[in-house]
Amino acid sequence: MKKVIFASLLCIFSSSTIANEQSLTTECPTCFSYEQFKTSAKSNAQLDKTRDVYVMNLEALTIKKFEVSKRFSGYKTLTGTGGEPDGRGGKMKGIKVPTYSVTVKDHNVEQSVLNNFYNLSDAKKQVMMSVQSLKADEVPSEIAGSVWDLVGSSSIQNKVARHYNGNTNLRNDLTNFANATDKVSGLLNVDKIMVQVSFSDGSTAIFSLYAVINGDLIWDFERGTDVDLNKVKPNFDTKNAESYDFDNGGADVFVDFYNAAKRAGVSFTSTSSEGAQTGGRVTCATKNLDKYICTYTR
After folding, report:
1. Would you state the pLDDT for residue 133?
2. Are 59 and 31 spatial neighbours (Cβ–Cβ below 8 Å)?
3. Distance between CA atoms of 146 and 218, rounded to whole angstroms?
4. What does the alpha-carbon distance between residue 168 and residue 27 come to, in Å, rounded to a whole number?
5. C-alpha R_g of the chain
6. Pairing verdict, β 50-57 and 24-27
7. pTM
8. pLDDT by residue (tens digit) across 152-163?
9. CA geometry: angle at 219 spanning 216 and 221, to 5°?
10. What are phi and psi of 43, to 5 degrees?
């Protein structure tokens, strides 16, 4: 069970029936006061279950233990919003919603748990030191010259990831971190480990460690920023319009953006064109010589 959890612990953790019956150790890097630790523990309460929740701030070297339980306590009525029409000739009525009570009790942390926590904290710090050192290691231009090269291309994303997987210090530190997590009892939920990489055109990308499976590091491309501070995502947003300004990058970065959009299925149209393909469309205008502004719409 621990190996399965570790393979996915760097993702957002999904609760299950088994999870409700086990203790949980969860990372809260923003927890500093007692009330913040308590609130974090309370948010992990499970209905009709009593469980131990260990809340830890690995950087602050602090861990606290709570016993939490959640019970159904009744219903409350939400009144209609200003007597608005309900669409059937009447007015909106109040809606009954269930309410719950959560009990939180604090306990002393066992020495064995403390020992494992200190080991985990030390291992995480070593990983983060290795991650920081990678910022100076620019992605070779033959792999990718811009963060835009990653959009719509899983093969290039994988090539970038493999390049950094070759870093011996990072691999060793992550192996030690994996061993430290394996000693934590119950379920473990820690924040994603993020790596920022840079490209020759001045753009950057952030990868998150998705899993460690049989010693292999599995990374996900999360997001990036180009030289004009345009936000770059793995795929173009299909819900909201986005504007891109190619002032500093000029024609070269615009071409990278154009190719990325085409790979993602986006169509380019003039302002007089009507209709858009499934992937949305991009309308571009020239600001000055070799300077462009583009807007993506669905």
Report:
1. 83
2. no
3. 21
4. 26
5. 25
6. parallel
7. 0.72
8. 899 999 999 988
9. 165
10. -70, -15
User: Can you tell me which residue has the tokens 């790979």?
Assistant: 263
Q: Which two tokens stand for residue 76?
A: 């409350």
Which two structure tokens, joined as six digits, stand for 75?
């219903």
How does the average pLDDT of the chain come out, rounded? 81
Mapping DSSP onto H, E and C, the string for the chain reads: CHHHHHHHCCCCCCCCHHHHCCCEEEECCCCCCHHHHHHHHHCCCCECCEEEEEEEECCCCEEEEEEEEEEEEEEEEECCCCCCECCCCCECCCEEEEEEEEEEEEECCCHHHHHHHHHHHHHHHHHHHHHHHHHHCCCCCCCCCCHHHHCCCHHHHHHHHHHHHCCHHHHHHHHHHHHHHHCCCCEEECCCCEEEEECCCCCEEEEEEEEEECCEEEEEEEEEECCCCCEECCCCCCCCCEEEEECCCHHHHHHHHHHHHHHCCCEECCCCCCCCCCCCEEEEEEEECCEEEEEEEC
pLDDT in the model for residue 181: 87
For residue 6, give every residue at least 6 positions away whose Cβ sits within 8 Å of its Cβ, in sequence order, or none: 178, 181, 182, 188, 211, 212
Mean pLDDT of 118-124: 94
Tell me which amino acid residue 44 is.
N
